[in-house]
Structure formats: structure tokens, C-alpha cells
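In response to the reviewer comment on reproducibility (Comment 2.3), we provide here a single inverse folding case reported in full, input and output, so that an independent group could reproduce the run without further information from us. The C-alpha cells appear first.
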């Protein structure tokens, strides 16, 4: 894995003397507006600006900056900030600096650049960056919603809905020379957009899914280069997506439906003479559903009949007299929102590893990797030949697909050939979770060269990499990487393959935190918090799934509480305080709701899922039935609620809400008192029935009386080492704290044993038995197929966090979030001889690369500009340490802090360092 692209950055305020001298070694890059990769059409009028500084020297800290924002590139080039000139600001802030210029209105285009002063000199001006403002007001949208609110004779609206795609077109004339052209589109459920026959953008499965009755996302594109001062045509195709639901007319009490696909589009044209024109959706557009995409359903697949293709339908001059007049339809209902997250893309193309004949007409293709996306196929045959592609994660012993774990998802694409030489096809409006593909009806003997695997997920950067001397840990990391990327689908879903694919909150409570070390997921999870807020009921309740495509309002703590923990992650990892400010009222509303409704005798009584998916006593079971393996639901709910109160207290401090700070503290202490009274067994030194989870949660949430802590910790250690023989026994809840809990309490060796096991139950057991992602169950190879997805992430718990923070030793200080101050403290674990990690934080790249050989320890590290780090070395003697062969006292950027126990603590400023300990 390699870093494919990059992020943005963050703060703290310390003033230094500034320098006027320009230093060519200090450069600015990765400018970000509101943390966006594509800042077209944002709906924020005071966006936050961030930048990254690079330098060849050590110990470089920003002391001042100046931002210019202009209405044209020419004005910016002339250093005229007609929208905003910040002047020279004495500050070390380099992330989330709020725009404070002229009030921005819809469609405003903004060009900006930045220069900085550091303690080592002044930078040159950065390259020009850009953002544009979207359509801020409802009345900014012109035209009408269009669609076809009916099905056709070839469609099927039963439980297994089959609805064909809708094709729209509109010809128009641009009579003048074009200066600027911008498209704003809401295409529901999914759209493809064309101008003069050329597809606009490289996104797929756009826009991202939402509860369309609450909020609908629009995308913005600069299409200036695609238009001509003459005849033009706009063409769109609408697929079903989550709008026209995957199980129509089925369980309406559970599954939310939204209607038929529909669209609203504005094309704004600005001519060189200053006049403007808007081409919008109205009754003049034409539509047909009798095109080649005969059905598209995320659960069941896409059927494409190439004999129904309409050559040049999206080009000027196509004869559309047989097309229908569009219907003016009811709008979707939700508030119009600029999509501030990345769309999905084909992020990687991989080749199959083999193809084998199953019988005369059936072949099994092996991608060699469980993935999410689809196949691209190249085929030559006769007109009317039909090829079936059915997808699955595993095979039966006889070589056939194993599909029982997919439930009623049909997961089959069908392609009908037109018979005109080599044909290349891939679907437009579905995705599959799969490793294996059953191919039927192929007109020749297929080879791997006929197929490509198209890996699809949100267009976000890979910002982390990790490797150790332990092959099992490395394989688990790779499996996690593939599992996480498989389940980013405009929202974090639980699985990509069966008839579910839902954004369950509990799966990401801690998982989102670990994922943030690998992927630039800040925008995805910021959007998801909005989905959760929109799903909140007026009384304060939050569902287990958001957007609430399934109506699961279960009123437990451990799943809805993810709303709070993800906000905390966004602040801790990315410094996003605005998200906390925005969501605080809704989070507090839920906190109050749960306490008002479920606080009985000092404890929160409601739990729904328990410690979900603990390793069961029998390999065929999905859930353990043995009470000794199960953790009391009231204990889980109450302990988790205490943790959430603690996080809410931190939020209240950030927002200076003193009354709330006191109230949360009082509630927390009252529950802790009742909790210890009911669940703490002092004689046995354990809580409740003594499961690892029952003891671990109060330990990690600081709920244990000081005089009882050692006994409870001893119970955890004995439970893991003796009863469970060094294996995991926790489910989704306990595993969120297991690895860090063991390490932070002095037993990283136990955590390492659990992490490197290859027998049941363990992550290594999954890899040992052929998994290339993470299973839903510890016993996913043996369990009842009703619930054993081969591509889930919920059981990762805090494993990825432990990899980066404890093994590699890359962690953000709690006192100065977003890696402004880095804590580098790798665990020295017997049996592990090396680890290296890279993490691209908001300020730049952090590297940790250590090796142990006998009594020698070598550690190469990189600290980004405008940050500092506390570095913990495995010795208590300064005389045993050198950096690049020099004594520490003579090294620039390094300062001795203190020695604690067997650790030497240094303060290290930005730069690259090579430490050696003898």
C-alpha cells in the first residue's frame, strides 16, 4: 500500500519573533478549503482554510501567516485580496483558519493563496487554490423536478424490484462565447451526467446516499470546456440506488421507500459579454426507460441489453421523437445540501488470479481478494448471447459458489451482446461484495484477460501504512485495509455483499478511530453525523442504523452512542471542533432522553445487543448461549453511558458550558456509585459474572474504586491467560478497549499474543483459513450462514488504533489534538523485532520505523513542520542514546525532558531523526 494523495491541517497558539528573510526550503502545499478535495459548490459561507508546511531544516515552527482571497485569478496574482486580506497574523495556526472576508453569496468563485513566516524564515506565496460557493438558497434553484412516476411492462415492482434506468436529454443553443459554465445536479437515486456525449466527472454511484426526506445532496461541476457556442445537449441516466429501494413493496413497517427516480438540474452559463443564462429541468426535456439498462438493484444486480443501445443518444442531433415527454414530479422532500464528501470512484483495477471450468457452460473466476465493486468484461459473440455474472465470497467444497450467507440477494449481472465485434461492459448502478464470480453463457472459453476487478469506494486518500516483523499481524492489517475500503459507500456500511449493506452505528463506535489512521475519512464521518442527526426523532431517540433506511429505533446505549464517539474522534484526530459545536444540542438531547426514560435505581436499564458476537461455545452458533460468556446488558449500558457522559463533559468544556459540565459530572458519579454497588464483587475481584468485557469497561472508564482496581485487573489477566488460554473472548463492545486496555495497564505482551494468534478465536484464525478481509464472526468459516459475512469490520475493535499508537508509537496528545503535539511511545514487546508506520496527519507525514537487535534499538522518525513530539526511548540513561551519531546535548531540535522508570523522554521538534540506543 502506498500513499495515493493527501489531506489538510490544524492548531495551537504560540507567538514567536518573526523573520523577514525568505527561505527557499520552506514550502506550502496541500491547501484545503473546509477540508475538501474538490471544493466546487460548497454550502459554507465561512469556510475553514488549512495548509501544510514542508521544510528541509529541523525545528521549524510557524509564527505568522497571511491569507489572500480574490474574486479572480488575475487579482490574486497581483496580490489583491478583494474578498479577504488577512494581513500578517501572528499565530501558529495552520488548520481550520476561518475565512473572515466579504460575505459570500451563491455561486461566488474564490481564489486564494497563503504565505507563512516561521522561526527559520519566510515562505514564498503558495500556489493558487480555489473554492466556489454552491446554491445557498432554495430560490437559487431554477426549473422543476422531472421524472417518470410509473413503471413499464418490462419492470417488476414485487419484493424483488426490477426497475429500468431512465434516460433524459435536452438540446439547447449557446449563442455566444462562453466564459464559465457550471452544472448543479440532484440525480436520485443515482445519476450519470453527459454533455455533448462526454461523461462529466469520474464519479460512480453518485450522489452519496441520505434519507431523502431529510436531506438530498447535489453535486457541482465546472463544465466550461465541454460546452460550445452552438448546439449542445445534456444527457442523464438515472439509476435506482437507495431511492427506489432494493426491496420494493416489502416490509413497509421496516424499510423506508422514497418513490421513483427523479432529477433537478441547473446549468448556469456565463458568457464573455457578461450576460448569463440557466438551462434547467422542465417539461421540455425528453425521457425514455426503454434503454439498455433493463434493471438495476444493489442487492440483485444490473441487467444490460446491448441490443437496446441508442447510439449517440447523448449527442446533438439524435432523433428522440419516440421518447416520452417528462413528467413534472413532486420534489424529494429533503433540504438541498451541497455534497461536502467525496463521491465514490473506481479506486483500483485488479486482475483475477484464475478461472476454472465448473461444467460445460459454467466457469468460476477467482479475484484472489474479497473486494467491493464489480467486473469489467471484454467479450466477442453473437447478437442476443446472454452472459450471467453471479458473485460470492466463498466456494462450496465442490467448487460451486456458496451463496447461503447472502440471504435473498440475487447478486447477478446479466449482459446481452449486440454482436458487433469486441464489446466492453461494466455496470453503472450496482456494486457487489465478492471474491468469486460464476460466469455462465460466455460465448468462448473465457480467460482472466477477459475480466478486470473494479474496486469501488469513496474517493479518499490512503494516509497510513503499517508493517511489522510479524507476518500474521501484517496479513491482518492488509485484511483490515481491504475490509474498510470495501465498506465505504457514501456512508459506512456493515457489509457489501448480502441483502443488508446498512450503516449500523455500533460497527463504527471505535472502528472509525482506527480507520482514520489508514484513510482520510474525516469528510465521510462528518457527513455521517449529519445523517444521524437527521434521523433523530423529536423526542431525542437515535436509531441503530442511520440514515434510517431500516426503522430500527431500539433505544439502547451502545449503538446510538456512536454519534458522540465519532464526533470525539473527529476532534481528536483532525481537530474538528466545529462538528462538536454543531451537533452538541442533538447529542445532549439524546443523553437527556436516555436518562429520563431508562435511568432506574441509578443505572441505565436498556440494552439491546449485549456484547455482540462474542466467540460462542460451539463453532456452529452465531451467538453464545452460555451465560458465562455473556455480559449483563445493564452493565454494558450503564458503563457505556458513563463513558459518554465523560466525553460530553469534554465537549462542554470546549464550548464553555459550565452548567452542563456540572450536570454531567453529577450524573456520572451517581451512576458509578450505583454501578459499583450492584455489579462489583469485592471478594472475587470482578464485576458481575467476570467476563473480560464486564471488568474491562469499568477499568477503562475509571469507574473502579482505587482499592479494588488491582484485583479487577488481576481477574482480567487470569481470564485471558488461564481460562481463554491467551485468546480473545470479547465481542463488539469489549473489543473496542481490549488491546489498549492490556497495553496501558502494563501487559502489551498479552495484547501481542492475542494479535498474533492463528488459532480460534482470533483475527489470525480468519487469515489462516483463507480470509482476505475481516469476518463478521470469529467463527465465520463454521457458523450458521444466516449471519456470517466474510467482509465486516466491527470485530476489529481497537486493533488498528493499537497498531499505530502502541506498536508503532504514533499518537496525538490529548492536550493538543490533531497531532499538534505527538506522543511517540512504541511498546517493546518480546518477539516483535521491528515495526514501521507512516501516518499523514493534518500537519504532514509522521514516520516511525524501529528495530531491535539484541541490546540495540534503532529508531528513525519524522516529525511534521509546526508540530512537536514527546519521544519515549527504551532506556533511562541519556548516555546510551545518540542521534545520527551525535550526543543528544548537541542535537538541534532535541531537548531532554526527564527519565521515568525505564523510559527516557525527549521533546523533539520537526524534522527527520535517527536515534540509537545501546
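Designed residues, in position order:
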Amino acid at each position: 500500500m502506498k500513499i495515493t494523495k493527501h489531506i489538510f491541517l490544524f492548531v495551537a497558539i504560540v507567538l514567536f519573533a518573526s523573520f523577514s528573510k525568505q527561505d527557499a526550503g520552506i514550502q506550502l502545499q496541500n491547501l484545503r478549503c473546509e477540508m475538501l478535495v474538490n471544493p466546487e459548490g460548497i454550502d459554507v459561507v465561512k469556510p475553514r482554510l488549512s495548509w501544510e508546511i514542508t521544510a528541509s531544516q529541523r525545528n521549524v515552527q510557524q509564527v505568522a501567516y497571511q491569507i489572500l482571497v480574490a474574486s479572480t485569478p488575475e487579482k490574486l496574482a497581483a496580490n489583491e485580496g478583494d474578498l479577504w486580506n488577512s494581513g500578517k497574523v501572528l499565530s501558529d495556526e495552520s488548520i481550520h483558519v476561518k475565512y473572515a472576508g466579504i460575505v459570500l453569496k451563491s455561486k461566488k468563485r474564490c481564489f486564494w493563496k497563503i504565505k507563512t513566516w516561521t522561526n527559520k524564515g519566510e515562505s514564498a506565496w503558495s500556489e493558487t487554490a480555489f473554492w466556489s460557493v454552491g446554491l445557498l438558497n432554495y430560490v437559487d434553484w431554477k426549473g422543476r423536478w422531472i421524472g417518470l412516476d410509473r413503471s413499464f411492462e418490462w419492470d417488476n415492482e414485487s419484493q424483488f424490484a426490477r426497475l429500468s434506468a431512465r434516460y433524459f436529454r435536452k438540446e439547447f443553443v449557446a449563442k455566444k462565447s462562453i466564459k464559465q459554465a457550471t452544472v448543479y445536479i440532484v440525480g436520485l437515486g443515482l445519476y450519470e451526467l453527459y454533455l455533448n456525449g462526454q461523461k462529466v466527472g469520474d464519479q460512480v454511484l453518485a450522489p452519496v446516499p441520505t434519507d431523502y426526506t431529510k436531506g438530498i445532496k447535489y453535486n457541482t461541476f465546472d463544465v466550461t470546456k465541454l460546452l460550445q457556442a452552438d448546439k449542445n445537449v445534456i444527457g442523464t441516466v438515472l439509476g435506482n440506488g437507495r431511492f427506489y429501494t432494493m426491496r420494493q413493496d416489502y416490509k413497509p413497517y421496516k424499510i423506508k421507500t422514497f418513490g421513483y427516480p427523479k432529477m433537478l438540474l441547473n446549468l448556469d452559463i456565463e458568457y464573455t459579454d457578461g450576460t448569463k443564462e440557466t438551462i434547467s429541468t422542465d417539461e421540455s426535456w425528453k425521457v425514455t426507460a426503454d434503454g439498455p439498462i433493463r434493471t438495476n438493484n444493489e442487492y440483485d444486480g444490473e441487467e444490460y441489453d446491448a441490443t437496446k443501445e441508442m447510439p449517440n443518444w447523448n449527442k446533438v442531433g439524435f432523433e428522440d421523437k419516440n421518447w416520452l415527454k417528462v413528467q413534472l414530479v413532486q420534489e424529494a422532500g429533503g433540504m438541498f445540501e451541497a455534497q461536502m464528501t467525496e463521491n465514490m470512484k473506481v479506486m483500483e483495477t485488479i486482475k483475477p488470479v484464475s478461472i476454472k471450468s465448473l461444467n460445460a457452460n459454467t466457469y468460476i473466476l477467482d479475484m484472489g481478494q474479497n473486494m467491493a465493486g464489480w467486473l469489467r468484461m471484454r467479450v466477442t459473440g453473437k447478437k442476443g448471447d446472454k452472459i450471467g455474472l453471479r458473485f460470492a465470497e466463498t466456494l462450496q467444497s465442490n467448487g460451486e459458489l456458496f451463496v447461503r450467507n447472502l440471504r435473498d440477494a440475487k447478486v447477478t449481472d446479466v449482459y446481452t451482446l449486440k454482436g458487433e465485434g469486441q464489446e466492453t461492459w461494466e455496470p453503472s448502478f450496482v456494486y457487489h461484495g465478492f471474491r468469486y464470480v460464476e460466469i455462465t453463457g460466455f460465448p468462448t472459453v473465457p480467460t482472466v484477460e477477459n475480466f478486470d476487478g473494479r474496486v469501488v469506494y469513496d474517493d479518499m486518500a490512503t494516509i497510513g501504512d503499517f508493517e511489522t516483523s510479524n507476518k500474521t499481524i501484517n496479513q491482518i492489517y492488509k485484511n483490515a485495509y481491504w475490509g474498510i475500503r470495501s465498506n465505504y459507500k457514501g456512508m459506512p456500511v456493515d457489509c457489501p455483499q448480502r441483502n443488508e449493506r446498512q450503516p449500523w452505528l455500533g460497527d463504527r463506535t471505535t472502528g472509525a478511530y482506527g480507520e482514520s489512521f489508514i484513510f482520510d475519512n474525516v469528510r465521510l464521518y462528518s457527513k455521517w453525523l449529519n445523517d444521524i442527526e437527521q434521523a433523530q426523532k423529536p423526542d431525542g431517540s437515535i436509531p441503530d442504523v442511520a440514515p434510517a433506511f431500516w426503522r430500527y429505533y431500539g433505544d439502547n446505549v451502545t449503538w446510538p452512542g456512536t454519534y458522540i464517539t465519532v464526533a470525539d474522534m473527529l476532534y481528536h484526530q483532525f481537530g474538528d471542533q466545529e462538528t462538536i459545536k454543531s451537533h452538541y444540542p442533538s447529542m445532549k438531547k439524546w443523553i437527556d432522553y436516555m436518562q429520563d426514560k431508562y435511568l432506574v435505581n441509578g443505572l441505565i436499564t436498556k440494552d439491546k445487543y449485549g456484547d455482540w458476537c462474542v466467540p460462542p461455545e460451539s463453532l456452529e452458533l452465531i451467538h453464545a448461549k452460555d451465560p458465562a460468556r455473556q455480559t449483563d446488558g445493564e452493565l454494558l449500558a450503564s458503563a457505556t453511558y458513563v463513558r459518554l457522559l465523560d466525553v460530553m463533559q469534554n465537549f462542554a468544556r470546549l464550548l464553555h458550558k459550565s452548567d452542563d459540565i456540572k450536570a454531567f459530572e453529577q450524573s456520572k458519579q451517581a451512576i458509578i456509585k450505583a454501578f459499583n454497588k450492584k455489579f462489583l464483587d469485592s471478594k472475587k475481584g470482578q464485576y458481575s459474572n467476570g467476563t473480560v468485557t464486564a471488568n474491562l469497561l469499568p477499568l477503562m472508564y475509571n469507574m473502579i474504586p482505587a482499592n479494588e482496581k488491582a484485583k479487577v485487573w488481576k481477574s482480567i489477566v487470569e481470564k485471558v491467560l488461564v481460562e481463554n488460554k491467551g485468546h480473545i473472548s470479547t465481542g463488539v463492545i469489549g473489543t473496542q478497549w481490549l488491546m489498549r486496555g492490556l497495553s496501558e495497564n502494563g501487559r502489551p505482551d498479552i495484547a501481542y499474543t492475542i494479535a498474533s494468534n492463528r488459532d480460534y478465536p482470533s483475527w489470525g484464525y480468519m487469515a489462516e483459513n483463507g480470509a482476505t478481509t475481516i469476518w463478521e464472526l470469529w467463527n465465520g468459516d463454521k457458523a450458521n450462514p444466516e449471519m456470517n459475512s466474510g467482509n465486516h469490520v466491527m470485530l476489529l475493535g481497537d486493533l488498528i488504533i493499537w497498531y499505530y499508537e502502541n506498536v508503532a508509537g504514533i499518537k496525538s496528545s490529548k492536550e493538543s489534538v490533531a497531532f499538534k503535539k505527538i506522543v511517540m511511545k512504541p511498546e517493546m514487546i518480546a518477539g516483535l523485532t521491528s515495526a514501521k508506520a507512516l501516518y499523514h496527519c493534518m500537519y504532514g507525514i509522521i514516520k516511525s520505523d524501529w528495530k531491535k537487535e539484541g541490546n540495540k534499538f534503532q529508531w528513525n522518525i519524522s516529525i511534521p513542520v509546526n508540530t512537536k513530539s514527546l519521544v519515549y526511548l527504551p532506556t533511562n540513561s541519556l548516555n546510551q542514546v545518540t542521534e545520527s551519531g551525535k550526543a543528544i546535548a548537541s542535537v538541534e531540535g532535541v531537548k531532554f525532558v526527564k527519565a521515568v522508570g525505564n523510559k527516557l523522554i525527549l521533546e523533539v521538534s520537526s524534522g527527520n531523526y535517527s536515534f540509537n540506543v545501546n
